[in-house]
Inverse folding.
């Protein structure tokens, strides 16, 4: 397999149709889902020449740690639907590639069993004691940051799943991180009344750095800075929540200019080629997250499949830097882009 596109096609044969739809699909008319990818294609590169070096440095620093490439695993639910070893395989692949896995609250493996450099993604639950328990569990398990998804005031309207009648996990799989203190698996709920003022409470219950995922408006990025957050992820949830949200790469420049380098800004949504990563870096993102490609790799070949996804991006990125006349990610700036 020589590209993430090929992996995506191949994965279809490894998944039941309703599971494939669950992973691949978006909300409503899937406008945002398509836009995330096509917006990257609209941006042209204007490479520099005669300024490269024999070795390229792909590493970047993120919340005080160095990662080997500017790609993290975005949080996605239910990895054991893709492969029996689920999140453990994903985490080992991330570890082998020298990067971070963001573990989903909807993971099918307990956070305590997931190895490597991890962050924990959660949605605040109406039962705040449950959230407190989950967050403290993740901190105890060694997760190094909290990722609060702020784009889930309601559940996205995913028509593929409605059509397929996919509304619960098969027997034997549960959202392991939805267990309460008594060990009972609770249903994931939404908290439409979650407000900026709740961030102070999250700070009280955990000492971990706090990253907000699902920021799209520059005014919210500024507000997040006022509330002392440690990082932002520009994300429209891979087109699975509000349809018609603009493509993340189109949203990125206003956010990075509002943030002005004060905290790291990540982007996810539609990253399928290293040139997408080059464009995101040139517009000020520290790193990108990948969601679906990880699930495709996992479905095809477990840990090795996810390793393949990450190594393909690494090889492509190294080549793209050489062809842009860059020796490190810091050489990528907005003057390399035209659109
Ligand atoms: C099957 C699936 C499950 C997801 N589950 C979660 C989740 O549990 N929490 C979350 O914050 N985002 C979740 N996301 C969104 C991803 O974190 C990410 O924003 C998105 O997948 C990025 O787009 P991409 O798939 O085009 O790379 C999920 C996405 C997919 C495709």
């Amino acid at each position: 397999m020589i590209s993430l596109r090929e992996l995506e096609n191949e994965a279809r044969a490894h998944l039941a149709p309703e599971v494939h739809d669950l992973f691949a699909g978006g909300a409503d008319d899937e406008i945002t889902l398509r836009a995330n990818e096509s917006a990257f294609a609209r941006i042209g590169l204007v490479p520099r020449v005669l300024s490269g070096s024999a070795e390229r440095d792909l590493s970047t620093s993120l919340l005080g740690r160095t990662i080997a490439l500017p790609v993290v695993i975005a949080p996605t639910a239910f990895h054991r639907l893709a492969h029996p070893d689920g999140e453990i395989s994903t985490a080992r692949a991330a570890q082998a590639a020298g990067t971070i896995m963001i573990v989903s609250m909807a993971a099918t493996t307990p956070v305590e069993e997931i190895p490597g450099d991890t962050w924990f993604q959660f949605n605040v639950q109406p039962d705040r004691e449950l959230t407190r328990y989950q967050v403290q569990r993740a901190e105890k398990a060694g997760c190094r940051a909290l990722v609060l998804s702020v784009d889930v005031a309601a559940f996205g309207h995913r028509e593929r799943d409605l059509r397929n009648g996919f509304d619960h996990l098969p027997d034997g799989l549960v959202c392991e991180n939805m267990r309460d203190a008594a060990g009972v698996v609770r249903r994931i709920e939404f908290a439409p009344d979650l407000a900026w003022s709740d961030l102070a409470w999250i700070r009280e219950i955990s000492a971990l750095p706090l990253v907000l995922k699902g920021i799209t408006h520059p005014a919210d990025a500024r507000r997040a800075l006022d509330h002392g957050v440690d990082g932002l992820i520009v994300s429209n949830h891979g087109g699975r929540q509000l349809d018609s949200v603009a493509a993340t790469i189109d949203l990125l420049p206003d956010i990075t200019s509002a943030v002005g380098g004060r905290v790291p800004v990540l982007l996810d949504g539609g990253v399928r080629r290293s040139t997408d990563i080059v464009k995101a870096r040139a517009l000020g993102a520290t790193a990108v997250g990948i969601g679906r490609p990880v699930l495709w790799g996992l479905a095809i070949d477990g840990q090795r499949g996810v390793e393949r996804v990450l190594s393909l991006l690494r090889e492509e990125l190294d080549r793209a830097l050489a062809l842009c006349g860059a020796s490190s990610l810091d050489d990528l700036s907005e003057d390399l882009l035209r659109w």
Q: What stands out?
A: The chain has one domain: 4-45+71-328. The radius of gyration is 19 Å. The domain at 4-45+71-328 is CATH 3.20.20.70 (TIM Barrel). Residues 23, 36, 74-77, 104, 106, 121, 149, 213, 235, 237-238, 240, 268-271, 290-292 surround flavin mononucleotide (CB under 6 Å).
